[in-house]
Structures are given as structure tokens and as C-alpha cells.
Amino acid sequence: MSKYNRVLITGAAGALGRQLRVSGLKLAPQIRLTDRFPSADLAAHEEDRVAELADFGAVLDAVRGCDAIVHLGGQAIEGTWDSVLNSSIVGTYNVYEAARQCGVKRIVYASSIHAVGYYERTQTIDASAPTRPDSLYGVSKAYAENLSRYYFDKFGIETVCLRIGSCFPEPTDRRHLITWLSYRDFRHLVEVCLDAPRVGHMISFATSANSQSFWDNRLASVLGYAPQDNADTYRDAVFARTEQGDPDDPAVRFQGGSFCAAGHFEDPA
Amino acid sequence: MSKYNRVLITGAAGALGRQLRVSGLKLAPQIRLTDRFPSADLAAHEEDRVAELADFGAVLDAVRGCDAIVHLGGQAIEGTWDSVLNSSIVGTYNVYEAARQCGVKRIVYASSIHAVGYYERTQTIDASAPTRPDSLYGVSKAYAENLSRYYFDKFGIETVCLRIGSCFPEPTDRRHLITWLSYRDFRHLVEVCLDAPRVGHMISFATSANSQSFWDNRLASVLGYAPQDNADTYRDAVFARTEQGDPDDPAVRFQGGSFCAAGHFEDPA
Amino acid sequence: MSKYNRVLITGAAGALGRQLRVSGLKLAPQIRLTDRFPSADLAAHEEDRVAELADFGAVLDAVRGCDAIVHLGGQAIEGTWDSVLNSSIVGTYNVYEAARQCGVKRIVYASSIHAVGYYERTQTIDASAPTRPDSLYGVSKAYAENLSRYYFDKFGIETVCLRIGSCFPEPTDRRHLITWLSYRDFRHLVEVCLDAPRVGHMISFATSANSQSFWDNRLASVLGYAPQDNADTYRDAVFARTEQGDPDDPAVRFQGGSFCAAGHFEDPA
Amino acid sequence: MSKYNRVLITGAAGALGRQLRVSGLKLAPQIRLTDRFPSADLAAHEEDRVAELADFGAVLDAVRGCDAIVHLGGQAIEGTWDSVLNSSIVGTYNVYEAARQCGVKRIVYASSIHAVGYYERTQTIDASAPTRPDSLYGVSKAYAENLSRYYFDKFGIETVCLRIGSCFPEPTDRRHLITWLSYRDFRHLVEVCLDAPRVGHMISFATSANSQSFWDNRLASVLGYAPQDNADTYRDAVFARTEQGDPDDPAVRFQGGSFCAAGHFEDPA
Amino acid sequence: MSKYNRVLITGAAGALGRQLRVSGLKLAPQIRLTDRFPSADLAAHEEDRVAELADFGAVLDAVRGCDAIVHLGGQAIEGTWDSVLNSSIVGTYNVYEAARQCGVKRIVYASSIHAVGYYERTQTIDASAPTRPDSLYGVSKAYAENLSRYYFDKFGIETVCLRIGSCFPEPTDRRHLITWLSYRDFRHLVEVCLDAPRVGHMISFATSANSQSFWDNRLASVLGYAPQDNADTYRDAVFARTEQGDPDDPAVRFQGGSFCAAGHFEDPA
Amino acid sequence: MSKYNRVLITGAAGALGRQLRVSGLKLAPQIRLTDRFPSADLAAHEEDRVAELADFGAVLDAVRGCDAIVHLGGQAIEGTWDSVLNSSIVGTYNVYEAARQCGVKRIVYASSIHAVGYYERTQTIDASAPTRPDSLYGVSKAYAENLSRYYFDKFGIETVCLRIGSCFPEPTDRRHLITWLSYRDFRHLVEVCLDAPRVGHMISFATSANSQSFWDNRLASVLGYAPQDNADTYRDAVFARTEQGDPDDPAVRFQGGSFCAAGHFEDPA
């Protein structure tokens, strides 16, 4: 029923990548996985390509023959400049340039709310707000959003940038009550991003239907994303385990949380 | 309980007009129907006047004695210039000028999303966005929105312009999953437009509570429109019967759908 | 579980103040009440201080030893200039200046929608819209919003200004169908205002989840306020008892309702 | 030097049309004039076609062979519905449809500030503000702006809609100090509209560089319109001859001036 | 030539008040002055009334018989709460209530940029930005803006609130290069505020035509204020005498300058 | 008079870098130049460091001892990915990280309008519009704007990003009439960026005072940039030499001009 014959998932061996392989979810008749680590337990419709994103030739091999890409790979938290540079900046260029050469039509990109982490928690922003990254990691996410905009405007490759909040089994701190994205909602969101007749270049915040929110996601309302989980289910448990925190602590003041409180990654602690 | 003694329904013999006559819905103690075709099966509180909207005298006769109008009449899809001109442009002038002469207080006008059909599907607009009609039909809808604004600003006649999406028994293509308005929600919406203490001049998008949307309807939130249907109920059936489509096809790219893909109506095909 | 040791409630003997003392709601281990009238039936964790808000020394005594304040006191409807001046303008200054001297961290302030009562009912506003008070009472509310902004910007005292709609046991007129705030939702809202890790200076509209609304509250979405009541429950009863009203009556035209229709309070009627 | 071979001017015998024929202004090597009245004193590069705009065949003849059109024809002030309908609504359709059939690339259209005449004088609007016509004349101008938008979005015909203020030899009342467009600035503006490499569909307010203004014209800043006249030159003379007026008179309150104070054109005075 | 018979100037003995009495400026045939101090050298068309603004009876006497008021009186810089309360909060209420009782049509009010002093210098705001006062003085200015809005919305008294920057003979520090208002431009601005046919309720920033600015004044463009002075004339002199300052000093960071760096006025230094 | 002791200019041997060395312009008592090519004719207050921006150690040496940086270095037009990556992406990281380690307070960064090149020419944007790069070069400029925002939000290093238009001796095509920045205005703009008491993180468009414009620069109005040149001086000469162009050519349609019409840099032509 999918219009895609083969979808490539980068970062397939990571926590989010594995979620896209759960039974019942079938993004396309054929799925190709790629990661620097091999994936386990391949299903019949899955194939695996171990590759470094920084290696253009390997990326090109992985992309060739695919109609769409769910690009989850690259640095997943703050890291050294070299790591961010190679896996996220160079790696994402490699994915887009390979996609252009191979005629890929649509990419779902795992951006992050750390692209806008320096907005204050008392602000409500939508996808048109200027980016304010809170880390080199966040800078690389904003860069990829711009790169994908360029590949859409010039070459017509559609992208949905998902600014993923906190995608974990369950919320474990008070900020997660605002930013949590359940695995179930994540899978649904990737599906609707692939299914929508047209996405152009779009940025969507990606959280569950939490009562608290920093983000107004109406600019992505054409996607029809209908989250089913709400972090409030865990509210009492989280309140019991955690403190309210000092409102002037950068980790409490800004949307990016602890990323805003951290110093330069490579400085001695 | 209605504050109106007699409500006039234009286009009463059409699909939407007939929906306002279903049992259980009573907009006023007396209902007058008008259309170029006669209406069947009149109830005790209904009377019928066959009239062409382009005939001012006939329209004046139909309007006289009514407190409010639900103006559904006129060209319902793209047509020749002559048809659009006479039934929608002249016809709607006749309705408003007759309303002014007869002291009508409020009009609910069936505008259309084709008044804004040239926005891209990836845009989310609200009622303050400049009109971008996708057809002569859409131009006539934008004209009527302006005409009614004028009659409110100068003469105080209140109007709600309903930008009706796709009002059919059920959604039958993928765009309908976004634009569908169920008959039940249409009836409820007309009721709240008549019941609201004050509407001034207002534009409201008119769809059911579909998960996908192009439109942010918060500027009409005073109406209290609470749709109960969601096109997603039909999603799997629609997906099974239809293709995703080419995202660069104007029918997929723009909110107006196939109206944007069509050429000039009178050109040889 | 609260991070506050002692919360002060001003206006504690009034209708809203009493709602914050219902069983099951515990804003802090210790609650101090203050009002010009004594409160009845003190619980073990409650103490009471009778005081006039216009008396700075009395206010300072009431504030000393508290971590947070729910400031409900002062003129609750339109009154004479002297009354507004003393209880609301001077009284609120006294509360904030005492809070500064005593190191209070957060204040929940009962502002009112009469601070923006002169917007038309057909407009939808959010908390960034310029204030347009409809009464001296409303002027005093806008003043307090500015005063609290100043105390946050210069001295770091956090405030949530709740623009309370119509907080009564149930809606009794058609405007209440839009503006009603149930007691249950009021209590929940005060709780989340105290619980949120950071509120900075924030303005939140305060109504139940009514179908009709004048207000877009997304700028306060970080609070996670999840109202459970909807005035529509009372719609049929209210419609049966009331008239629709003249849309050009200031009481119907403007959001502030009858406050906009009233003349100067001290003029002979 | 012009890229156009032949430019058509409609309404050529009117006051504005004659301004485009003054010596020194040469919009194209060949100019064709059309009006219901003949033009006098044709220059060597001018030809004249007497035609009614309501006559499609005559309009088609006038348009054939032209590259661009300056469309000044049609009702120039408020008139009867029949006059507005025929000369402005039907007439402008005829011009655009003829332009489509003949491959015309660009049209400069004389819209009017009466398309937005019901904004208050104390408001500053730009070209994205919803239209609020103050007359049937103004409704026809808003209609033509929509029609031209449609012909651009579907057929690629570029248009600049000039919302002309008060284009007279000099300002004669206090409102003209705000709305005046000198003949010199009008001619320059038409030139830049024809010269600009790309205009798409654009709306530009058209006044001289008056100190007072209702309009923020920055959305048309790509045109490079650089007015040289300022109504303030006439301020003392105008003040000497006129009264300030009652600020609550609709003619003083609204941008459209006396158009807003007038009743229905066809009513007995 | 003025439409006013008698204009009242409050704060007439202060620096700004004296500027409105210079030769050549004639706001009305009769001028009444009022201040807590007497004015010297009365011209033939001037009369003087010594009065405290906090004394309603005295204010009423001063206002009676006047058509318009230029309200400059009250606390001119930060002061004690009692002083701000009496001269600015109570005093301005007295002026507006007296104006209502006496049928005054228009008031020009000397507000201050300290009503918005807590915006950062790197922000550009217009008159629709929420107020952010930087002092009790600034709170009283924001209060008066709200009070005058109320008196316009309910009673129709027009007001222009002038958010005066730094009105001195010449700029003396680097912030003045941004905020300076020359005496000449101040006088011109008061004139156009009185002359404009309609001002409704309007807020205008009041500076000279300085190259640097924090404020976008286009919402007041109907006034036709055309400043002639530019603080840049003094740039080299000011740079020679002053330091650039620490960009993180509140006096440099915020628009309100030193008002933002000061503590509570009544605290021991 | 400058508050800086030593300013570093990167890209000092390029066309723009040389403009900052003209006689009469003195940004600081000491100027250090760096480029991959040596600079000629050093003045007494100048020193030169030949360095590759991609070499962090060399950059650190160049930055050490400087108070401010004018960062002009890196790829100046579209280039291969490797060139953009090394000179602009890695190079600019090196400059900011060295600045952080060395305590530099302010950086003036030569961004480019190619960061927003895919806006249509008929749009007017300001600095808050989302970036839409038209080339890998433009992507690298948007990246640097984000990187500098991060270094300001986390480490307090101030930056003005100058989105430079077409900085050449004179305009040579019709698009330059819109985008031209004269050398004189460029020098003045760098001066005011260094002189302003506080710039925080700011984006300023950088063109001369051309009559035509795509950009509304009011968000940078605190800089006090007062351009003196206007491309219109060259209008007749440019029109004589050039064609108007096809409005649908991407080079004419988009703000980025020929960058938008070009394909992938490394593809065979």
C-alpha cells in the first residue's frame, strides 16, 4: 500500500531505529538498514548495510535503490566537535547528496529540539521561530534543517524535519513531562510523514500529547499527526522522585534543559 | 427558542440545502425555501419560492418577511463566466441588497475554501490570510466575502462566511481526509452561526474534526463550533482505493486540489 | 511534596479564596490566610491574619515567612475610584513590595478579563494583545500586571497573572458560556501555577474548556493547565432562560459584557 | 529601451490616462489607447481604439498585439450597481481574459484605497491586511485584485495593483494631505511597475511622500518607487481653507473618507 | 486657525511645559497653565492656575473651560511610591475624570519610554508591544496609557500618548544618541497631535530623527510627525566624552538605561 | 577612541578586507590581518599572519591578543563541498572557538544574502524570516549565523551577522540595483557594528540606500547604519547595458539571483 518500494533507515541500530522495526509497522515492502553497527534479527523484508555516514561512497551504496529515507543517524547527544562534524555535518551532507544522485523523493530527518534549546521555557514558539541551538549538536541539527531546505528548494527533495523532544520509554524528570515523545507516537509520526501526499519542506515538533508544551505545532497540521500518549500519566511518579528545581538554573530556565547548563564539551570539567 | 421568526434558505433544493431540512433541526418557527428548482415534501413550517438569484425582484420577494438568511445558492463548482457572473456575483448582490432593504439582521453565507485554494498544502492559514482563489468560482466567493464585509461595515448586517471544505456523505479521496465536512457537522455549524449573540463579520473554515488540516480556525472560536466527525474514520478505506499522487501535481500541491490543476473552464479540453 | 513551606492567600474569605481551602487541595504544608474579614473553620495547617491591603505594615506582617502568595484580594468588581485605588492599586503595591522585602519567590495573581474587556467578541486575542480595560477595576488589573512585570524584570519575583473569566458555581447567562471558569478548574489552575518549575512573568487566560472562546491561551501552554469542565453542559438550560440579545448592545458587542455597557460608577444612575 | 513593443492603456481619455501621454514619458515604442471616448492629439507612436470594456469582442481587439496593459478604465468613483457591474466587474474580467488569450505578460491595474476604506484612520495597514471596501466601487476593486491574483496563480500573468489614493493636481482637503498622489509620482510609479524585472502579483499603495500616512508600503519595496512630492507643501493652504472636522464623523474616522459617510448610492438623498 | 478655544497645559512650569510657551508656537487662542509652581512672564493669551494634581477640586477648576489638554504634569523621574502614587497615579486620574466631566475632546499625554524600558536594546519594538516598565515611574506611565485607553473606549476622549525619550537641549551620553528628542521636534510633535483630524487612542514614540533607534513608530504614521533633528550631529562630541560601556551592564543592555540598573528607590544606597 | 586595543581581520587580503585598510578608517589602535595570502603595504599599526582558517592552531595564534574580530574569511562564492566545508564550516568554528578561548568580546561576521536567497523577489523579509539558502555557500552562511548565536547564548560573545548583498565598486546588472553595497557604506557599517554599545546577537542586511529593496532592516535599527549611496545613480547606465530578463527565470524570480539558477556545483556543466 506504501508508494515506496524501499525505505532506507539510517542509525538503524540505535534506540529509535529499532523502534521502526517493531512488528506491525511496515513502512515499505523493502527496508534497508544502515548504521555503523550491524542490526540484529533481520526480518525477511529487511537488509542491512554497515556504513559510516562520513564515508560518501558507503552512503551512496546504501542509498542507491531506495525511494525514501528515514535519517536517524549521526551524533545523538552533544559530543566533541570532530564527532559532530563528521557524523552529523558531513554525514548529513552525504545522505542528501547521495539522495539527489539517486533520485530519492522524500526524507524524514531526525532533528531535535536542541536546535531551538535557548528559547525560554515561558515562551511558546512555532516552527517559524529563528533557530537558537544550545550545543554543537544543536548547531548541527539547525545546519541539517537548512541543508534539507536547500535540497528541496533547488532539487525538489521533500523533507520533514522532526524536532524530537525526549524519546524514551517513559518520562523520568519534570522537563520530560513537557518534552516526552513515546515510542508509539514516534512510530505513528514517521508513518504519517511518509504517507502524506505532499510535505514540501516542513518542520514538525515531535512530542506526545502532553498537557504541558513549549511548542505550537500548527504549521505541521497537514501531517495529521495524532499523538495518543500524554506524559501526565507519569506526573505523580515523576513529582515524587524529583525536585522542582531553581527557576533561574539554565537547565530549568531554557527549553533545552541540561544542554543549556553545560559548558563547552571538551573543556575539563 | 430561536430569536428569528422566519429564516430564508437559498439554494434550498441542493444537497446542502436539503440537509438543513432534516427532522430535528429547526432553525426558526418558519422556514422559507428558495431555489431555481422546487423543493419536495414541505413540512408545515416550510414554504417554498422558486426564483432565479439573478432576478432582483424575485429575490426581494423571497427575502421580504425574513429575519435571517442562510445563503447557499449560486454556482456550486467552477462554471462558465456567465454562470458565475449571474448566479454568484449578481445573485449574491441581489441577496444582500434585498436584505438591506428588508431589514435582515444576519446572513450565513456558504463561501468555499476555493477562495484560498492557491495556498500550498504545506501552509497553515487562518482567516486573516489574503484570499487566493483557484477558479472563477473561487473569485466569486472572495467577492461575496468582500461584499458582505461592506454590507456589515456600512449597514450593520451581520454575516458569517463559512469556507466550506468538502461536504459530502463521506470522504472519497485523500484530500478529503483533510477537507471533509460531514453533514452532521455542517448542520451544527449553521445552528451555532444563527445562535451566537454576535458574529459581526466573520470568516470560519468549515470542516469536521479531521486530524489533518490546512486551516487554523481560531479566529472563529467565539462560535463554539464543536465538530464531532473525523475523516480519519475513513482513512484506511480511502488509502486502499487511492494512490498517494505526485507531490508536484498542482492537484496535490495546492489546497484547492483539482481546481488548481484545471485550465480555463471554457477552453476546449 | 510542594516546594513551598508556607503559602499566603489574600482575599481568603472571599468566594475564590474559600475554594482554595477545600479538602484534598494542599498547596503547601502551611497556609496563611488574610482578608479584611476573618476566615472560618481553620484547618490545622491554616492560620488567619485579618488585615487591610491598603495598610503596608499589616501586609508586611502577613507576608513575612511565606514562600509564595496567591493574591486574590482587592476590589472584585467595579467600584468607586477610592475603593479601586486603595484596595487594588495601593493594596497590590503593598503585596509586591512586601514580597520583595521578604524574599517571596512566586505570586499567583487574580487578574481579570476586564483588563481586556474592550476587545470585540468577534476578535480572538492572546496574552500579547495590548490591554484594553473596560472599567476602573479593569484599569487596576492592567496596572497590577505591569507592576508584577516590573517586580519580575528587576527583582526576579515570578508571577502568573490569571485573567479570570466568570468563576461561579455554574454559567447563568449566554456570555458565561464563553467565559465560565468552574471552581474545579480554578483550583487545578492555581496548583499548576505553583507547581511549574519556572513561570517567569506570564499571563494566562482562565476559563474552563468551553466550546466558545474569545481567547487563545497558547502563550501559557507551558503551565499544562488541563481544564475538565465545559460550559456547554449548561447550554440548553441557559438558552431556555435567556434571550440572545441585541448584537449592537455594548454588553453583547464587547468581551467585557455588562462592564462595557455601564457608565461611570459614581454618576447618578 | 522598454522590453515591451506595445502597451495598451485603458481609460486613456480620463484624467490619469492623459497623464501617461505627457511628453518625455515613453512606456513603449508603440502605445495603444482605449476608452469609451476618443483621445485627442495622438502622437506618432499612439493609436486609439474606442471601446466599451463590457464588450468582450471590442476588448479582445484592443488587447491583441500588446505586450502589457495599464488598466485604468472602469467606474472611477461610486456609482450604480449596474455601472459598477458592467464597467468594473465585467470590464475587468474582459481585460484579463483577453490578456490570457493574447499572451499579455504584465498588467498594471488601477485599484483604489477604497478597497480598504473601512480601516480606521488611526490604523496603519500594509498590503497583507484583509480588504474592507467602503462602497460598491471598492468591492469591485477588491474583486479585481482577486481576479488578477487568480490569473497570476493559474496563468502566470503578472499584475501590480496600485491602490491609488487621491490623484489630483494638488491636495484640497485635510484627508488629501494623507492620501495625495501627485501626477508626477503617478507617472514614475507606472514606469517602475513596467520596468521591474519581476513583480509577480503585488499590491502597492500609491501616494506621494506625504508626511502623514495610513499605509506601510514595504511589501512593495522591490519596485523602487521613490516619490518626490509631499502634500505637506500644501498644508498651510489646506488648513486655511478647511476645518479639522468631527473625529467621530465617518468621513473623518475611516480611511475612505466621504465614501464611508455616504449611504447606498441609489437611495433617494 | 486652531479648532480649540483654550488648551490646558499641566506641568507648565517644568522644562517641557516652558517649551510649549516659546514665541511662534500658538496651540490655541487661549492657553491655561497649571503647575504646583507658578509660571513666569505670562503672555496676553496665557493664564496660570497653581494646583496640585492630587487635588481633584483644583484640577477640575483648571480643566473647566478647556477644549484640550497637554498633560505634562506629575512625577518626571523615578521617585518614592508616595510621590508616584499621588502625582502620577491619582493626578492623572484626576485629569481624565475632570476632562470627562468638562467635555474635553483631546489630551496629549507625556508618557515615557520607561513604560517599555525593559526591552533589550537589540530589540526593535512598536507601539503594540506589551509594556515592560523599568521603574515605579514607568509603571505609572503604563497605568496612564491604560487609563486613557479606557476613557477613550468608554467616553470617547481622544488621547495621544507620547513615549518621550530624552528631551534635553542636546544629547550628553551614548544612549541619548538613540533616545534624544530635541525641543524643536517636541514642539512640532505636540502641534501635530493637536491638529490631526482624528487620533482616537494612539501611542507614539517621541524622538528626533536619530540614525539609531529602538522603536518602529509606523503605528503613529497618521500623525505626520516629521522630526528635523538628528542626534548624530552630536555623535563625535559624545564619543569623545564617554566610554562605550559594558554590554552586560543593565544600563547598557536595556532600553531604559540607568533606570534598569537602579535598585528600589527607597532602599538605602 | 576605540574601546578595542587590537582588531583581527580575517580574509584581509580579499576585496572586502582591503577596504577596511583604507586611509582614514581606524578600527582600533592595532590591526592584525590574516588570510591564506599575505597582505601588502602594511601600515605601522598593522601586522599580518598568513594562516588557513581550517588550521585551528594557526587560527588560535591569530586570534590571541585581539579584542574583536571582523571575520570576512572563507569561501566567498559557491564552491565544492570540500572547499565550503573546510574554509567556511570548519574555519568559522575555529574562529569562534579560538575567540572563546581568548576572551574576544565581539565579532562582525560577513554573512550573505545567499543565506536567504530562495525568497522570491516579490517578498519583503526581515531578519526574523527563516533562512532559505540558495547554495552550499549559503548553507554555510546560515550555519555560521547559528553557530554565532550559540556562542552568544552560551558564552556571551557578541556578533553582528552582516548579510552582505553585492559589494562591488558599482552595480553592473539589474539585480545589483537592489542588492548593491558600496565600499563606502560597507566601511561605515563595520564601524558602527564595532562602536555600538551593545549588539548582542544581531543580523543586519547590508546594502546601500537603494530605492529598490527586498529587505526590511528595522530589526537592526539600533546600529544607526546610515548608508549614503544609492544604486539608482547607476540605473540608466545599467538599463542601457542589460535586458529586463524573463520573470520566470530562477535568476530573476529569486532574491539569490544566479545562485538559484545554478545546478549542483560539481556536476558536469
UniProtKB/TrEMBL annotation, chains A, B, C, D, E, F:
<keyword id="KW-0560">Oxidoreductase</keyword>
<comment type="similarity">
    <text>Belongs to the NAD(P)-dependent epimerase/dehydratase family.</text>
</comment>
<dbReference type="InterPro" id="IPR036291">
    <property type="entry name" value="NAD(P)-bd_dom_sf"/>
</dbReference>
<feature type="domain" description="NAD-dependent epimerase/dehydratase">
    <location>
        <begin position="7"/>
        <end position="180"/>
    </location>
</feature>
<dbReference type="Pfam" id="PF01370">
    <property type="entry name" value="Epimerase"/>
</dbReference>
<dbReference type="InterPro" id="IPR001509">
    <property type="entry name" value="Epimerase_deHydtase"/>
</dbReference>
<dbReference type="GO" id="GO:0016491">
    <property type="term" value="F:oxidoreductase activity"/>
</dbReference>
<keyword id="KW-0520">NAD</keyword>
<protein>
    <submittedName>
        <fullName>Putative epimerase/dehydratase</fullName>
    </submittedName>
</protein>
